[in-house]
## 1
Amino acid sequence: MSARPPESPRAYRGRLLTPLAASSNGDRVRYLDDALLVVGSDGRIVEAAPFAPGAFRGPVLDLRPSVLMPGFIDAHVHFPQTRIIGSASGSLLDWLERSVFPEEARFRDDGYAALVAGEFTARLAASGTTTCVVFSSSCAGATDQLFDALLRAGLRGIAGLTLMDQNCPEALCVPRDDAIAMARDLVQRWHGAGGGLLEFAITPRFALSCSRGLMEAAALLAHDHDLLVQTHVAETPAEGEATLREHPWARDYIDVYDRVGLLTGRALLAHGIHLTPREWDRLAEARSSVVHCPDSNFFLGSGRMRLADARARAVSVGLGSDVGAGRSFDMRRSMSSAFDNALCLGDRLLPSALFVMATQGTADAIGLGLVIGSLEAGKEADFIAVRFPEHLLGEAELLNHLVFAPETAAVHRAFVRGRPVHLRRLGAPPHHSP
Ligand SMILES: [Zn+2]
């Protein structure tokens, strides 16, 4: 008797749409009208190729006419704001005070945090988001609940305890030593958990809510464990001015993060609307990335981020929903808002460029560009199946509907590392073919 063979690869047949490798800042995609996606027992893609009868021996899940594509990646989302989407209570600083801080204080209750964490992961998966980079609250218990929910949902997630030791309500304020001790414990419990699907990120809310000492201690912890750093920068002029009043030793906003050691090659800075040329140059030099959150920027009236400033310096740009200032977990809403944002500045982005931005481009920005972001052999099988109206026949029409008419394109399956994380039954069930 021979040893039991490893679990046979799983194969999926459908149309296929993926960014071309190494097109992270571009708009080049590969479209196959009839393709086979083969996933190995290790969760990696063995092959993504045109379907050929008889070429694959084994069961095939036939998902035609759905389109297989990489799962979306949300590089900036706030878990404790899940329930306050649409709170139009003012511009950034007023909105934080009136809508965000009171809600985030509720996450001191583990039961409440667990409830919302379940909603959060379900909404991500249902939107076709297979990877998320997340701000938790400043509470360790809520952050445990978030990681636990991500683990149970099978999603890929990078998340961090939101650091705040000043300029915030007492209920959210955690002094430096306590916060760093909590973060250190969370690194031990969660960094690399779920077979490496989960990572801990150093997460100062923004420089205004953090003392210099807290940011310096957080930077050391990031360095010790090579952690991703995420924060906000230059979202509104008022925030920028308040930040420099708070940290007068810095020459500009980017310099605050730079001097405390947070401006690393693994730093992910959300917004970046009101940066000067010097700040952009420094970002590029430090190889930090920016997260474009256009839907949030429209909602809070924060301004228009100039993608051209990033592209001119080869700064990597990811896309973020920024829920709850962003109005939807669906990254297609963010793609559509990114189009509007560019249009306001006289630039017209192609739907293919927006699709690439939300997949391979964002994977690159968060340092996972060799692992996920496109469907090609060797990458981990994070993918979704999207059902479009029957009359849409070609690549251009599919992209137009994907980006601008998401209500016509249902995400009915999502997989992370080859394992199902979302299933929505549609009218006609898929059938198996031998
Ligand atoms: Zn944010």
## 2
Amino acid sequence: MKILFAVLIIIAVAAAVCVIRAARLKAKPSGNAEHKKEFDDDTAVDRFCEILRKKTVWPRNGEFDRDEFDSFLPLLKSLYPAAFETLEVNTINNYGILLRWKGKNPEAKPFVLMAHYDVVSVDESKWNYPPFGAEIHDGKIYARGSVDTKCIISAEMEAVTYLLSKGFAPESDIWFSFTNNEETGGDTTPAVVEFFKANGIDPRFVLDEGGAIVNSPELGVKDDLAMIGVCEKGICDTVVTAEAKPGHSSTPMPGDSPDLLADCIAKIRKIHFRPRLEPVVRDMLKGIGAYCPFYLRLAIANMWLFAPVIKLVMKNFGESNAVMRTTICLTQLKGSDTINVIPATSQAGYSVRIAPWDSVDKVLGIIRKAVGKKATVEAEYSFEPSPVSDYKCAEFDLLKNTINSVYPQVGVSTMIMTGGTDSKHFARISKNVYRFAGFRFSGENIAGMHGNNESLDVQAYLDGIDFYIELIRNFNTGV
Ligand SMILES: [Zn+2]
């Protein structure tokens, strides 16, 4: 009887502790008051639209439209003359635009603001409005690149212009790196990083695209949350090739190349990378957890007890599943061009996204082991996962505090990026690389990125200018 009583007491205490911890995780309003809108020049939208009308599609292979790229920097200069009177202009690999706003203190470590002005191609027939027309309908600007990422470039140039008009001068150098071939994994940003290294420039803080203020991220969150990418998964585009004697399809034999490949695919399907709640995943969960429904908050606040339950829940959401494990996705199959010919070569292509704790070699080793001698396994393109940036430091707080002051009602969380950005190259020279665009992106805005009818709300664009004004101002105070 006494033992039963003691057990009941222990269970009651444990339950109370869990509930208290969950209550502590509840979201607190991050700012005190509404942010006072500072920027009120609506003509900024016209300038943004001019930038959006440039068809800066950088193809993976083949020719690009030289006129569109040649005229991009001159367009920026004509739209933001005051900024370009002050900014020092460098070009990298002809089309990479690297601007320097010289600081007063040559000893202070510089800040870097990144974006790209190339955009992915469009299927014009599926758009409701011309993709490079930058037409405004129902308060939204429709154009390819409106979200990804010309909004960053134009908002930053507006911020520079505005701050100059107020007599602002930065303490440290501020570099703006606007690249021309991010979407195709081009060589401009690596060359920018080499330029930094060659000139002994050691960035204190780097900010690129990636996260943003998003509505209803996964796990039952209903609020807007500012998601800051602190690392990104690696990539391994893996090709599995089976080879055997070709022949006529009327006399098939086991062991021809499609048969071997089918075996390999079945084996690879059985590979499951274990989900892991590493510290960077746990911290992301804690950031989001404050806004989750109570049952999830209870679990997240008590991960020591509920880690298996959390993993089970996360498995049901695409993005959440992908942040806690390496994923492997079959995307391509190649066989015979003719239906009645057994090909000598059959190939399967896998898009593998590598969690920060795994590596390219480890992933290839696992796939090779599964396939055995039946096929060869090669990486067509690979990139290791980025290191996890420091997010318990003054530089991260500077970004977080800027978000809190411009968007006071919005919570802030770290996140693991499942997609790639050019900032991974900067991770080689800075431990403070963050991925966040200072805008509020609706679900519709995000769906349009790389899709059809990409759009950004006019108000979201104008608010973003306030964000970059505040951010640059905070570089001076280091809050
Ligand atoms: Zn992008």
